[in-house]
Design brief:
Number of strands: 0
Low-confidence stretches: none
Shape: elongated
Number of helices: 6
Order of helices and strands: HHHHHH
Distance between the termini: 72 Å
Mean pLDDT: 82
Amino acid sequence: MDFFQRIAENRILEALEAGLFDNLPGKGRPLKLDDDSNVPEDLRLAYKIMKMADCLPPELETRREITRLQDLVASLEDESEKLKQMQRLNFIVMKLSLTRPVSCLVLEHEIYAPKILARLESKNRR
């Protein structure tokens, strides 16, 4: 241990003996630690600041908008309005695709998996 770690450790032990940690809020309850292991190391601090400010990273905001538009298109009855919203959806998906090294539609298994399974099932029925 280096010198500063020993000083810190000694001060923590003195505070424990003096009872300074006895009445802390949340004592006896587990800590709520954020699992940021899947976030690149150079982005962790920025994402943490954004989370504390109740903001989403731009990519997640775009994904939220895509999901909202998908739900809207699925619920629309008017064909002209549906076409307009589908064009808007396609534009936003294209914009998101440009920010990734691979198309987001390839990575979005929840979009393609049901379509692929439906196609395979329909071929098997024939």
